[in-house]
Structures are given as C-alpha cells and as structure tokens.
C-alpha cells in the first residue's frame, strides 16, 4: 500500500476513534447516568458494577479500571483474529473513553427518562458508527460483532442486543425493572442507529439490463473490485436481445455504483435487491 494512503488511513482511524470516544463519554455522563440506564456491552457491565459497589458496599469505584479490565481479553483475541492496527487504535479509544468518562463533568440536560432513553441511545449509536466508519470501534462487544462481520460475513448486532438482556435482567432484579425496561429502549435506539449509519457489511444484488455490458462491467469493477456475470436476455414485449449483468456489492457501494452505471448506459434498467445470505467467494475490502 502507498505509505501516504496508509498514513491517511491510520490518521482517519485515530481522528474518528477519538471523536467517537468523546461522544461516548459525554453521552454516558449527560444521558446514561442521568437516567440510571445500562447501555449494554462492557460499558453497561462497568456501570452495573459501579452501581453495585456504590449501593451495597458504599464504595465509589472509578469507571476506567473496570472498563479496561473487561476489554483486555477481547482486545487480545482481536489482536490475533482481526488486525493489529485495528486493535491498537480501538484500545486507544477504549482508554480515551474510560479516562474521559471519569473526567467529564456530569451535566444532565433533561430528567425525562423516556427522552434520555431515546436520545441517549441515538447518540450512543452515532458514537459507535463514527468509530466503525473510521476503521476502529468502541471495543468490548464491538470486537465480537466485527469478528463475525469480517471473518464470517454475518451481521450480529441484533444478537448482541439479545445478549445485553442478561445485564438488564441483573440490573432490573437489583435496582428496579423500570430502569431495565428503559435501557432496552436505549439499546434498541442505539442498534437501529448503527444499522442506519454503518452499512459496510450489508449486501445487495445488482441486476442491470443494458446494451452496454462492457461499460457497465467496467463501472462495477472500478467502484467495487468485484466481477460480474453476464446473461443474454430477451425483452418479452419488444422481443429484442439484451444483456443482463449480475453482481453482489455492499449497500454503500450500490449507491455510488447505480450512478456510475447510468452514466455508462443512460438507457440501462437497474434493479437493486436486498441480499440476506451469501455463500461462496466474495471479495471483501480489507478494512482492519
């Protein structure tokens, strides 16, 4: 890889990671703690542990050491399974989030628990998405989600949402079910925001009816580095022979590619179909 491109890539990771860390820390102090919520993941476990120590043992435990200890094992696994640079940048973000959470002053914006749950969840999803788009993550369960996305080509964010239910059950049993139920709203809003903003691993199938198959294929290859399959088709109404190009690309690539295809053949007919399952060889750009 070009050293300049590699430097820009790492700089992007650091910048996006730090932005995500700042947003995450401010959100924890502004919304999450104000509402007594448990955001799921290792942040939720950390907050739950802090609350248990405070309520039952009258011990004020800082956020940083618990969060760092919980993230240690997933970080080691990620270092070997996902990528060294990705893990290092993510680890820096974990440290930054932990330290900032202890440093940022608590400034509650509202006491309305429903508003806190919805907007806190949306902001949490934005923070995670910014980190992921930059090529880093917020650590913890993100390591798990990215491992399955990168290595198994599976979207497991909703499964992580279900796994977080364990934290909520414990929190609900110890501190009241109202906070646990509001935390579900928080986590759902966060998950949906991630699905909206981060679409790298979502796939779509592209069908293009065209008279310029070579130009369309070239556009697909240049944008995605994917190949395509050409079929000979016959228009039922006109009885004319045309070509159909078939390819599978990511959702984000499809948005750019559709425009490129229409530039290559203004008379092309493009159909983009959601792809839920994909088996076989599929080129995935190296992100981590």
UniProtKB/TrEMBL annotation:
This is DUF2179 domain-containing protein. The keyword Cell membrane applies. GO terms for cellular component: plasma membrane. Residues 226-279 form the DUF2179 domain. The chain crosses the membrane at residues 14-36, 56-79, 86-107, 113-135, 156-175. It is found in: Cell membrane. It is a multi-pass membrane protein. Its main location: membrane. InterPro entries: DUF2179 (IPR019264), N-reg_PII/ATP_PRibTrfase_C (IPR015867), UPF0750_membrane (IPR051461), YitT (IPR003740). It comes from the Bacteria. It comes from Blautia argi. Keywords: Cell membrane, Membrane, Transmembrane, Transmembrane helix.
